[in-house]
Amino acid sequence: NSKYKVLVVGGGSGGCAMAAKLSSLGKDCAVVEPSDMHYYQPIWTLVGAGVKGFQSSVKPTRQVLPQSCEWIQDKAVKFDPQNNLVELGSGEKVSYDFLIVALGIQLDYGKVKGLIDALEEDPAVASNYHFKWVNKTFPALQQFNGGNAIFTFPNTPIKCAGAPQKIMYLAEEYFRMTGVRDKTNVIYNSSLGVIFGVKKYAEALQKVVEKRNIKVNYKHNLVEVDHKNRTAIFEKLDDNNKQVPFQYDFLHATPPMSCPDVLKQSPLINDGGWVDVNKYTLQHNKFPNVFGLGDCTSLPTSKTGAAVAAQCGILHKNLLQVMKGDCATPLYDGYTSCPLITSKSTCILAEFDYDGKPLETLPFNQAKEMNLTYNMKAYIMPEIYWKIMMKGRWNGPATFRKMLRLGLIRSKKIEV
Ligand code: FAD
Ligand code: UQ1
Q1: How many Cα atoms occupy the beta-carbon half-sphere of 415 within 13 Å?
Q2: Spatial distance between the Cα atoms of 54 and 130, rounded to a whole number of angstroms
Q3: In the structure, which protein residues have their CB atom closer than 6 angstroms to any atom of ligand 1?
């Protein structure tokens, strides 16, 4: 049985970036990651819309993980933090001095009755959230010939809370291009009661749905798909969960999500079911040699890769301090970002903190649909991800934000 100074469990966006930051530890750092392939999930929105190829989202894990660290290609099946042990699928137990938990969020497609069958069998049902089913989205849009195009948002926290509506805007634009928009109802059925959680961007998106003639039904939660009858059944959360059927001709489903089962069964989670970390330091609330990162954690911010980037910088500093025997002091402000693509050439770039206060990088109003922010999302972010973040050198845009603000204050363009 092996032992490592730092064990990282999960080698996705967060795990891989942290392993790169810790490369000076050499083989004293190991990453437990079962998948051969590493996916840049944020580009799946554009894969679904036929703008980017799926291949642009994939690289072999071996190429993405730093060569310095040990890659344990297996999954964690049990966490035993009292004894500093993680058990692997192989039965091996790995011990550690410090643990970073970065397992991401689990996609619970099975919780919607008939959804997996529909995704497997009905060409008109797709889901950008899964590496397999994201490849169905564009062919389904191409085959669509009018009728009801329905987009769903589940009744759980999800990663990238903007993604369920981004694909809708791209599809709506595509339907206009292919000439079927006139005979199409574009319908957004969301479990939430608002279009977006931050007021500034919600107001802007509200205008977008109105301008684009999109029908939004709030408090509608997808519970069943009967693909043989092309019917999606929603429960109305504000009307005693009354079930209402919707006929669909295209369905984009965002599945319910939760913390991975292996964590739910461990002592690492809180009552809400997420890895129980201090929201400022990312250190575990019960096990001080454990840190949590990204989508599997209790951090009360929107779950995104951009948030993970900012968290990595804080976690790294705090981990080094705790390794030296000091307290964790650098504090995470909850920074997160969601590039809300509204067409093949425009984007609303939401950036905000724990309080839902906008924390915008660029020196102009990012709630406006802009081509610049679309280009950042489509062309610059993937480069930042593969070439900077995966090398351990991207802690989010805070430095640029501060530099730009300072520059503008000096030239008296903005007041503080
Ligand atoms: P992940 O990157 O998901 O990594 C988790 C890793 O853990 C995986 O590699 C998995 O194989 C591994 N794992 C799982 N179980 C085990 C186990 N038992 N043992 C060991 N390893 C395990 N973010 C943005 O910032 N901007 C966007 O525009 C954006 N758009 C998105 C669009 C879509 C369609 C999707 C799906 C996501 C989008 N995101 C976006 C979100 C972003 O991809 C995630 O928030 C980010 O990847 C989270 O990083 P993570 O390290 O927490 O989890
Ligand atoms: C970001 O940092 C990031 O990580 C690389 C993303 O991709 C996952 C993003 O989508 C965004 C928007 C950011 C934030 C960065 C800037 C420059 C606004």
Answers
A1: 0
A2: 11
A3: 9-15, 32-35, 41-42, 44-45, 75-76, 102-104, 128-129, 159-160, 163, 260, 262, 294-295, 303-306, 308, 337, 339
pLDDT digits (tens, 9 = 90+) for 184-213: 999 999 999 999 999 999 999 999 999 999
- Measured CA to CA in angstroms, residue 395 lies from 26, 194, 356, 379 at distances of 21, 30, 20, 19
Closest CA to 315 of 12, 5, 17: 17
Q: Count other C-beta atoms under 10 Å from residue 103's C-beta.
A: 28
pLDDT at residue 408, as a whole number: 74
Distance, in Å, from the CA atom of 124 to the CA atom of 133, rounded to the nearest integer, reads: 11
**Is the confidence at residue 416, as pLDDT, over 50?**
no
> Among this protein's residues, is 160 annotated catalytic?
yes
Ligand 2, atom 14, residue with closest C-alpha: 306
162 alpha carbon, closest ligand: 1
Buried residues in 294-330 as b, exposed as e (16+ CB within 10 A): bbbbbbebbbbbbbbbbbbbbbbbbbebbeeeeebee
What is the sign of the dihedral through the CA atoms of 35, 37, 41 and 47? negative
Contacts of the segment 178-182: beta carbons below 8 A, 24+ positions apart = 178/142, 178/144, 180/144, 180/145, 180/146, 182/146
- The pTM assigned to this predicted structure is 0.97
What is the residue with the minimal CA distance to atom 21 of ligand 1? 10
Comparing CA positions, the residue from 101, 159, 156, 165 lying closest to residue 130 is 159
**Global ipTM:** 0.99
Which amino acid is residue 85, in one-letter code? L
